[in-house]
Amino acid sequence: MEGRDIMLDGNDNRLLEIHTLAYDHSRKLTLEEVLFLAKIELAITPPPPSHTSSRAAAFFADFHRSVMLEARLYGFHPFSRLNESTLWTPSGSGSHRQGTALQWVARQLLAGIAPSSIIETAHSQYAENGYDALEISKVSGIEVDDIVKITEGYELWPHDKLPADARKILLFDDVGAIFRTPNSCALVHHFRHNMVIDSDYQPSGVDMSKDRFGTSNMRRANKRLEIQRALILSTSGTVNMPFTYCRAAIDHIMDADGSYGGFLESAGFQSETPNIDAVRENLRLLEDFNVPAALHVAIDRLGKARGLSSNVDKALDLGMALEIALMHENGNSGGGSGEITYKLSSRAAWLLGKNPEERTQVFEKAKKIYGHRSAAAHSGRLKNESDFLSLDAHAFTTRILREILQRGSFPVWHHLIFGVEGRTEAESDPPETTCS
Questions:
Q1: Do 306 and 339 have their domain in common?
Q2: Which of 174, 285, 304, 335 sits a CA distance of 20 to 30 A from 228?
Q3: Is the domain of 294 the same as that of 265?
Q4: Residue 266 sits in the same domain as residue 328
Q5: Does one domain contain both 138 and 254?
Q6: Quick check: 78 pLDDT over 90?
Q7: Residue 237 falls within a domain, yes or no?
């Protein structure tokens, strides 16, 4: 094998001869020889320069420079085809001529895989034109000790069990202060990504409902929100999913997705190990809930309130969560704030209270919490912050939302207050009609 005739001493001399041979196309090399020489080159190539930016350092850690691969790899199938084609990622972005195949080969060589095995795997994975994928979302405020299933295709993972990836380093391993949210885990979704090379696909750019990726992306985003709401109702702390990315389940030659998406959210300083059975049950109830839009908004407000540092903002969001949950069918049309407060407090009392004493206590607590919300909305401050804190409005609002969720639908409030059991909003009496 011509490539294996290099016997010079010293790393510099060996690199020089490999680089010279790489660019001398009059000397023919087989693909196996190219990989053999690239393996030597990668083993003796000096490490990359250090970076002051932790973000740059995380992403540069995944990059391996090989002159031999750059000069020769794309002369062979399937690498030539991969370099010429747009590789579509699960999110619908396209990657073209980004060195995906070259970096995959470099990682395989550095892992000690034999060139013949690398070639065989490359042809096999290329022929698939797809791969088993993972959608990985950071979940702050939650910890798990092992991988646990939430629902079909979705699991919570400790972040130290995630596949190695620059984004994993960046988002989970405390590289960079803006991404540092300790006490976190990952929500991992398993799915299949097919047609990575799709010459017929043209992004619509207008109607996402007709785009190849639009519906699946929206479906996955909605599922993440459902699971986040189930976690919020099953815990007492701040639960957020600030960042999400996709990758192949194994190191795959067609995985061209190196990006992540998300936004910074308020994060708590503590975490909980959730009751997984409660999470599963709350998720099931959310999926079956009749007319869920109002309940979703109320849970989102509760979740947001938990991450706020300002008690004024907490009072506003918790008050809105209660108003949405207890007054949703009336909107804001129920007269003055005094009437809304009375209705809201009465409904909370009959929803949670099992006897007159309990209903009186719930009525007074709901009235005070909503009163703090009104004060915050009208004056921008709380008159008595210690009183607001003593009410434990987070826990009270959580009880309200859980009770409504357990019913499967919003109650018909006048039936509840008048003691008519087993009637839901969907079963409400029809409006009375008059005849002329």
A1: yes
A2: 174
A3: no
A4: no
A5: yes
A6: yes
A7: yes
> Does 372 have pLDDT greater than 70?
yes
User: Nearest-CA neighbor of 187 among 213, 214, 160, 148?
Assistant: 148
Could you tell me the two tokens for 123? 């042809």
**Is residue 178 located within the same domain as residue 231?**
yes
Each residue of 322-343: pLDDT tens digit? 999 998 764 444 444 568 899 9
Q: What is each CA distance from 290 to 130, 296, 405, 410, in whole angstroms?
A: 37, 11, 10, 8
Would you give the DSSP letter of residue 240?
B
Residues 247 and 349 in one domain: no
H or E element at residue 169 = helix 166-172
Q: Which of residues 220, 253, 288 is at a domain's end? A: 288
Residues 304 and 256 in one domain: no
Q: Are residues 295 and 308 in the same domain?
A: yes
The candidate with the shortest Cα–Cα distance to 232, out of 341, 318, 328, is 318
Dist CA 278 CA 291 (whole Å): 22
pLDDT at 267: 65
**30 in any annotated domain:** no
Instruction: Report pTM.
Output: 0.86
Buried b (16+ CB within 10 A) or exposed e, 342-365: bbbbbbbbbbbeeeeeebeebbeb
Domain of residue 203 covers 130-288
Q: What phi, psi does 126 have (nearest 5°)? A: -65, -40
pLDDT at 175 over 90: no
Residue 426 has pLDDT above 50, yes or no: no
pLDDT value of residue 176: 61
The amino acid sitting at 115 is P
Among 269, 288, 307, give the residue marking a domain's end.
288
| Contact present, 373 and 316 (Cβ < 8 Å) | yes
Total structural domains within the chain: 2
3-state DSSP percent of the chain in helix, strand and coil, to 5: 50, 10, 35
53, part of any domain:
no
**Nearest CA among 270, 382, 269 for reference residue 319:** 382
Give the pLDDT score at 97.
79
In sign, the C-alpha dihedral spanning 330, 336, 341, 343 is negative
Residue 281 falls inside a structural domain: yes
DSSP string, 2-51: GGGG---SSHHHHHHHHHHHHH-TTS---HHHHHHHHHHHHHHSPPPPP-
3 state DSSP class of 96? strand
* Least confident window among 45-49, 106-110, 119-123, 286-290: 45-49
Q: Which DSSP string do the residues of 182-205 spell out, in sequence order?
A: -SEEEEEEEEEEE-SS-TT----S
